[in-house]
Amino acid sequence: MTTINTNKIVINGVPAKFDASELQRRQQKHKVAYQQTQQCCEMIRGSIPQQFLQSVSDKMAAGYTLSKYPTTMEPINYSALLVKPPAMQEVDLTKINNDVSSAYKAELQASHEDYKQRLYAQLVQAEESKQAAKAQAAKDKVYADLKRQADQTYSPLVFPEA
After folding, report:
1. Which of 116, 134, 136 lies closest to 124, judged by CA?
2. pTM of the full predicted structure?
3. Structural contact between residues 62 and 85, judged by C-beta atoms closer than 8 angstroms
4. Of 16, 12, 9, nearest in space to 113 by CA
5. DSSP the chain
6. Are the CB atoms for 82 and 60 separated by under 8 Å?
């Protein structure tokens, strides 16, 4: 028994193309997230007050600033988040921009490949449908010829009139 697939593959639209404004929008979104979260900070820890304060002092001399996040001053657990200097943030943001760009390009490539695969499947399905229609037409033609031969072989029945 033959099963016929009635689900016709149809592709709508085209794959997305590179859009510089979309890339900039995504990069800006990640930049804002970087600046509004702890990503732009570095955690400074110390187990004794002098060690902690010296680390904070050294970082502040290197251009770090205090963040909006709370400082922990519990015994044996001193910590603070300090905002990285602008030069270090630029390095981080450059890496983030590169990562976002790579992810965007990979997304576009995946979309393009998906469209290619679906188009291939649609073309294969159309060709198989054409081949099946041709085969069925040829089969119908042969059966019609055989039926004609059978009809010609025997003359029609003649019944005497009563």
Report:
1. 116
2. 0.72
3. yes
4. 16
5. ------------S------HHHHHHHHHHHHHHHHHSGGGEEEEEESSHHHHHHHHHHHHHTT-EE-SSPPEEETTEEEEEEEPPHHHHHHHHHHHHHHHHHHHHHHHHHHHHHHHHHHHHHHHHHHHHHHHHHHHHHHHHHHHHHHHHHHHHSPPP-----
6. yes
Distance of CA 159 to the CA centre of its chain: 77
By the 8 A CB rule, do 37 and 29 touch? Answer: no
Confirm if 82 and 65 have CB atoms less than 8 A apart. Answer: yes
Q: What is the pLDDT along the chain (162 residues), one digit of tens a residue?
A: 445 556 888 888 888 899 999 999 999 999 999 999 999 999 999 999 999 999 999 999 999 999 999 999 998 999 999 999 999 999 999 999 999 999 999 999 999 999 999 999 999 999 999 999 999 999 999 999 999 998 888 877 888 886
